[in-house]
């Protein structure tokens, strides 16, 4: 598998892969919204390719910081591997690559959150070097209108 930063030419393939990540999402972003989010400064989308086809992806956001000596921190999100290629080490290779990029950028930590409760998924992230007992994550969502 070849890993590289994704470009705008890869956006449609990435959105196709994201359909596997969140199949319950009934509303997809419009082209303008997708392009703006994709190109946000400090955010890199990494992709794993086989035979020219995007088969795995994650994104890494590098966030400036005023603590920890001014060292940034990273956030990895939207980790997904094509369903037909899961369990082959592709997701792990992609996460390891993103972590290497974060360490090279001087990050003092990288955070990854998941809404998955499957013990196998949690164990996968632990094998990738994440400690689920180090921090506690809280999520706030906008209130729903009645």
Gross CATH architecture: 3-Layer(aba) Sandwich
Structural class: alpha+beta
* Major β-sheet strand ordering: 1-2-3-4-5
- Which percent bin holds the helix content? 25-40%
What's the quaternary structure here?
A: single chain
Large-scale geometry: globular
By DSSP, the count of extended strands is 5
Tell me what portion of residues adopts beta-strand conformation. Answer: 15-25%
**Order of secondary-structure elements:** EHHEEEHEH
Task: Report the CATH topology name.
Answer: Aminopeptidase
How would you describe this structure to a colleague?
The chain has a single domain, classed as Aminopeptidase. The chain is an alpha+beta fold and about 150 residues long. The chain has helices at about 10-20, 30-40, 90-105, 120-125, and strands spanning about 1-5, 45-50, 55-65, 75-80, 110. The N and C termini lie far apart (about 50 Å).
Summarize the structure.
The protein has helices at 11-21, 31-38, 90-104, 119-127, and strands at 2-5, 43-50, 53-63, 73-81, 110-112.
Write the SSE topology.
Elements (H helix, E strand, L loop, with lengths): L1 E4 L5 H11 L9 H8 L4 E8 L2 E11 L9 E9 L8 H15 L5 E3 L6 H9 L19
Parallel strand pairs: 4-5
Antiparallel strand pairs: 1-2, 2-3, 3-4
């Amino acid at each position: 598998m070849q890993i590289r930063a994704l470009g705008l030419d890869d956006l449609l393939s990435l959105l196709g892969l994201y359909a596997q990540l969140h199949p319950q999402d009934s509303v997809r972003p419009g082209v303008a919204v997708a392009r703006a989010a994709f190109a946000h400064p400090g955010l890199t989308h990494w992709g794993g390719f086989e035979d020219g086809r995007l088969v795995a992806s994650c994104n890494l956001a590098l966030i400036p910081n005023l603590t920890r000596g001014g060292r940034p921190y990273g956030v990895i999100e939207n980790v997904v591997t094509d369903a037909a290629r899961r369990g082959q080490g592709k997701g792990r290779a992609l996460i390891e690559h993103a972590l290497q990029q974060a360490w090279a950028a001087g990050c003092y930590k990288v955070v990854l959150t998941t809404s998955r409760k499957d013990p196998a998924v949690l164990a996968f992230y632990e094998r990738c070097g994440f400690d689920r007992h180090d921090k506690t994550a809280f999520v706030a969502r906008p209130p729903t209108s009645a």
